[in-house]
Q: What sequence folds into this?
């Protein structure tokens, strides 16, 4: 484990402004549309130097933390307050829990490393790694080293010592319901899976594990000499020449994985091998778990296989998605120099390029971005919209009835809502819908400063920009908040917005 101090940067606060730089009509003032309330949270003082990359905002955009240096000492400013000073702060920290209520960081003092969780300093180690919270935020783990031994510390309790622990992807990690912990350990030139403190069979190699959505199962690939095995709840599959991607279904009843034997690849579903191909990859289950689709390549032709039925061949395939109700699928495919979108209804017209697709929550609308004559367009249910120089991802409202996206015209950006352009600005942040789908909100850059827009109406206040990592968070259908920089660029401010109910 390698630890470095954050690279010192002076108060370059304008780099904190994490707008997607991205002015069509004139926006109306918001005097009768919404009100804004400013609350100063913290102002930069001369004694601190701030480490810009370390800035973190919690999930509901109510708190922030950043590493700072005062003289030769380091601290983590939590909402602008430094509670203790250290000789150094570990890379990758601070870290907020997913629910935004807890915070942890690693720190060095008197030659030893500690984990500080919710203001409480943990025991001393020679090294500690960046922490991980459970999905519900109630639990906490990290890897620590003492002497030549590595330990997993879970909820403050030290596990067994190992010569090595794998820290990669999902190892160590919590199950989706936060109840279980799994990690890969190394000893005597062998790798072992450890689940809830229980050690399982050693192998020559073990890849990080994946829990099923309901946390009842755990799966990983393992190797003995030149054979590879899929291990599900400690039960081994037959040995294969190679193993590829694997996935659980949403109901946790099915496990599908790519395997190779005798030079051919096939997808194994619930222990049963499917048809053989030159290559297979990316097993994808539908949301209701009733359909399995995957990519197959045979004789240099790409095809999607859904429920064991092979689709038409193409030169390349990308971006496969099931609809939320599992009744439809869509993917992009290349035929020579052209791209098409493919669904059970057939192929779309040919385009120069086809980008990511998205489907409304009620599955009634599907949208994707295409390139035609050097312009980008959004196509919704087969109907092509106007062309722009750039388009950022399409967002559907929670109820599925509305749609928006960011679009660039020349050097300016607008937000297109339900097919109609809003005002043009020098930049806009990624827009979002309110929970009842009635309102849209975003930050917009005008005359070198930023403003809040609600339903394309401008607020009165101006800001230096949005705080890195902060979103526009709704506290109800007609009110939201966010964190911004003051116009001076040296002050963090909370903005609360209230939209009058009509």
A:
């Amino acid at each position: 484990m390698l630890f470095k101090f954050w690279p010192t940067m002076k108060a370059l606060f304008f780099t904190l402004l994490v707008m997607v730089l991205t002015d069509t009509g004139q926006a109306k003032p918001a005097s009768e549309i919404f009100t804004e309330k400013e609350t100063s949270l913290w102002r930069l003082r001369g004694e601190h130097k701030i480490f810009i990359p370390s800035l973190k905002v919690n999930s509901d955009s109510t708190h922030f933390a950043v590493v700072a240096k005062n003289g030769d000492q380091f601290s983590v400013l939590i909402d602008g307050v430094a509670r203790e000073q250290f000789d150094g702060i570990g890379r990758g920290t601070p870290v907020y829990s997913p629910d935004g209520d807890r915070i942890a960081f690693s720190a060095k003092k008197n030659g030893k490393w500690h984990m500080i969780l919710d203001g409480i300093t943990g025991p001393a180690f020679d090294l500690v790694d960046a922490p991980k919270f459970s999905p519900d935020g109630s639990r906490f783990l990290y890897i620590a080293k003492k002497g030549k031994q590595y330990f997993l510390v879970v909820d403050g309790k030290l596990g067994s010592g190992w010569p090595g622990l794998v820290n990669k992807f999902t190892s160590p990690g919590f199950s989706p319901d936060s109840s279980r912990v799994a990690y890969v350990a190394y000893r005597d030139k062998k790798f072992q899976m450890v689940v809830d403190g229980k050690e399982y069979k050693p192998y020559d190699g073990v890849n990080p594990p994946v829990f099923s959505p309901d946390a009842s199962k755990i799966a990983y690939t393992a190797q003995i000499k030149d054979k590879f095995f899929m291990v599900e709840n400690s039960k081994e599959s037959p040995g294969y020449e190679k193993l590829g991607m694997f996935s659980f279904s949403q109901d946790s009843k099915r496990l599908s994985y790519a395997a190779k034997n005798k030079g051919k690849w096939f997808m194994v579903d619930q222990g049963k091998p499917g048809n053989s191909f030159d290559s297979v990859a990316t097993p994808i289950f539908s949301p209701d778990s009733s359909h399995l689709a995957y990519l197959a390549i045979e004789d240099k032709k790409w095809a999607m296989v859904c429920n064991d039925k092979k689709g038409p061949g193409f030169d390349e395939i990308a971006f496969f998605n099931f609809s939320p109700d599992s009744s439809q699928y869509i993917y992009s495919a290349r035929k020579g120099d052209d791209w098409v979108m493919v669904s059970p209804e057939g192929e779309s017209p040919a385009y120069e390029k086809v980008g990511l697709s998205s489907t409304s929550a009620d599955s009634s609308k599907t949208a994707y971005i295409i390139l035609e004559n050097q312009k980008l367009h959004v196509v919704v249910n087969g109907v092509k919209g106007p062309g722009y120089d750039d388009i950022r991802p399409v967002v559907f409202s929670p109820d599925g009835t509305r749609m928006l996206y960011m679009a660039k015209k020349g050097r300016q950006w607008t937000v297109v809502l339900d097919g109609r352009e809003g005002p043009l600005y020098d930049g806009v942040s990624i827009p979002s819908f309110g929970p009842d789908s009635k309102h849209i909100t975003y930050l917009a850059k005008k005359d070198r400063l930023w403003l809040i827009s609600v339903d394309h109406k401008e607020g009165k206040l101006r800001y230096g920009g949005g705080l890195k990592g902060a979103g526009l968070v709704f506290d109800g259908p007609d009110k939201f908040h966010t964190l911004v920089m003051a116009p001076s660029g040296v002050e963090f401010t909370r903005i609360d917005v209230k939209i009058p109910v009509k």
